Every structure is written in structure tokens, then in C-alpha cells.
Amino acid sequence: MKLLSILSSSIILLNYVHAIKPVTSAQFYPLNRNGDIPTDLEPFQLGQDIPLDCISRNIDNGEHKFDDKDRIIYIPFPTCQETNKPLSFKYGVSEDVNCTIGFTDELYHLFQLYIHEDSPFSCRLPLSNEPHYIEKGGAFIPLTFNFRGQIQDSHLDIDSHLNVLFTKPAEENTLISSVAWSSGTNATRIVIGDFLTINLAVRWLDNLKNTDSNTDSFRNVNGLPFPDGFYKLPLNSIPISYSMFLFYLGLVSLASGALVLAFSYNLISIKFSKTHYRNLDNESLVTKRD
Ligand SMILES: *[C@@H]1O[C@H](CO)[C@@H](O)[C@H](O)[C@H]1NC(C)=O
Ligand SMILES: *[C@@H]1O[C@H](CO)[C@@H](O)[C@H](O)[C@H]1NC(C)=O
């Protein structure tokens, strides 16, 4: 009886939804602090560090901390022992990175909140390479670190193996979206004072097709910073562009070329010192005379 009434009311609701016109006034995302479409983006260079900062939270309840202007306070990601600097990502570079962080009392309590999903481990990345771009009111995209694990009475179990995905437009060196999530099956036991190595598999998807482009219905069409639409993952194939593929191929062949050279150099120089490459010429002369 109850189910039936829920069903019928949802059918009425569905009819109502069908009756109203589809929403046509789309709005570009992301906007800058003034609510405008961010134009004049300064492109990132391939391989450069992108600034990353994260919401500062109260350890009692996970609430944001605010400054005296009621703005959310952002702080750097915890410092990695490997670099002695807070974690950051290289623009456009797919690579495996490690970051070993120390669990202070504060960080331990914050991770209790993250793993319990009371509050997200929220960070952000600027859309433009201009210095202090976000602080000056520029647009940014969120990057949330979804660490998973279990909270125990005496310790935390944390899955520290994270996939990190970035999507970018094919032509413009800016950002569309990013996400990081635990994908291992091996949790590490952590107590206050411990160090944890986070293994990050960072991948850049730069060849996603933007479907459902809406450009014509934007109110402010005097220039979008990059083509709009749903940068959708394909059902199959790896969405990296031919040029990025060549870039990595180039890196790999440079590295392997150097390796081959290093190995063969010894052989060549041994052979050269023995024969000075004269034997071939001599032989060919001999054959000609024959
Ligand atoms: C990261 O650390 C793991 C061990 O936790 C190690 O096997 C791997 O080689 C390291 N990777 C890099 C890129 O340093
Ligand atoms: C799981 O993690 C622990 C602690 O980091 C490590 O000692 C162990 O080798 C890992 N096991 C596997 C299968 O990765």
C-alpha cells in the first residue's frame, strides 16, 4: 500500500518533470571568484610543478578553518621526505611518485576524519600558470584524496596506494578535473609518530573527447578558455594523445638509446683498439683482387 503510493507519487513527479521545459541556461565551470568565466589563462609548461594546496581543518570536527575575512584557509599538502617539500604534481607527466609523510598528532586525527569520511581531504589546483592566480581570485579545480582504510581503537589501517587521474583539454595546457583514490589491497598500520609512504600512480588523460558541447547556450560567449562539454572516458582505448604518446616514446627511446650506447661503447672501443676498423677494408680489397 505504502509502496504503491510512493510509486504513484513518483509517477506524478515524473510527469511534472516532463512537463517543465529543459533547462537551457548553462553555466560554464569553473568560474573565478567574481563569478566570471576565466579567460586569458597562462598555459602550464609540460613538466612544471603545479601549485597544490589543501583545506585546513579543525581536528575536533573536521570543519574548515577560516581567516579574518571569512575565507577558507588553504595550506600545503604534508611534506614528503623524498623531496623535503609538500607534494606537488608535474604538469602533463604520467609517472609513479612516492611521498612519505610523518603522522603528527594533528595529521593522525585528520586522517581519522578522512577515513571515517566525516570530511574530505580536499585540495585544489589553479587553472592558470599565473603566479598567485587563485589568491588573486582565479578559478581552480578540486582534487580530493580519497584515502580508504579502517579506524581501530589503537591505530589506523590506511591503504596508501593511490591512483591519481588528471584530465586536460587536448590543445590547452590547463586542467579539466582531477581525482585521487586508494586502489591497493594492503593497508598499513599507523600510530602517531609513524611514517607512511604514499605510492601515487599519476596519469594524465589529455585526449578525451568533449561530448555535449554547450557553447551556444552560454550567456557569456565572448571566449571560453577551452572547448566546453563532458570530457568523457571512452568505453575502450587509452585516452592519451598521439603527441603525448610520442613524448613518452621519445623519453623511453632516449633512455634506452643512452643505455644501448653505454653498453656498446665498451664493445666498440675494445674492437676499435684491436682493429682500428681496418680489417674490413683490407678484406674487401682482398676480395676485389680475387
Ligand atoms: C616507491 O616505493 C616503493 C616501495 O614502497 C618502491 O617499490 C618503488 O620503487 C618506489 N617508486 C619510486 C618511483 O620511487
Ligand atoms: C603490505 O604493506 C606492508 C607494510 O608497508 C609491507 O611490509 C608488505 O610487504 C606489503 N605487502 C604486499 C603484498 O604488498
Briefly summarize what is shown.
The protein has 290 residues and is an alpha+beta fold. The protein has two domains: 25-239, no CATH class; 241-277.
Please, could you describe this protein's structure?
- The model is unreliable at 271-290 (pLDDT under 50).
- This protein is globular.
- It has helices at 2-19, 105-115, 242-275, 278-289, and strands at residues 49-50, 53-55, 74-76, 79-80, 85-86, 89-90, 95-102, 121-126, 140-146, 148-151, 156-159, 161-167, 177-182, 187-190, 195-205, 210-211, 230-231.
- The chain has an 8-stranded mixed sheet with strand order 3-2-8-9-13-12-15-7.
- The protein folds into 2 domains: 25-239, no CATH class; 241-277.
- The chain is built from 4 helices and 17 strands.
- The protein starts with a helix and ends with a helix.
- It has 290 residues and is of the alpha+beta class.
- One 2-acetamido-2-deoxy-beta-D-glucopyranose (NAG) binds at residues 186, 188.
Outline the secondary-structure elements.
Blueprint: H1 2-19, E1 49-50, E2 53-55, E3 74-76, E4 79-80, E5 85-86, E6 89-90, E7 95-102, H2 105-115, E8 121-126, E9 140-146, E10 148-151, E11 156-159, E12 161-167, E13 177-182, E14 187-190, E15 195-205, E16 210-211, E17 230-231, H3 242-275, H4 278-289
Parallel strand pairs: 9-13, 12-15
Antiparallel strand pairs: 1-6, 2-3, 2-8, 4-5, 7-15, 8-9, 10-11, 11-14, 12-13, 16-17
Signal peptide: 1-19
Organism: Hyphopichia burtonii NRRL Y-1933
Protein name: Protein BIG1
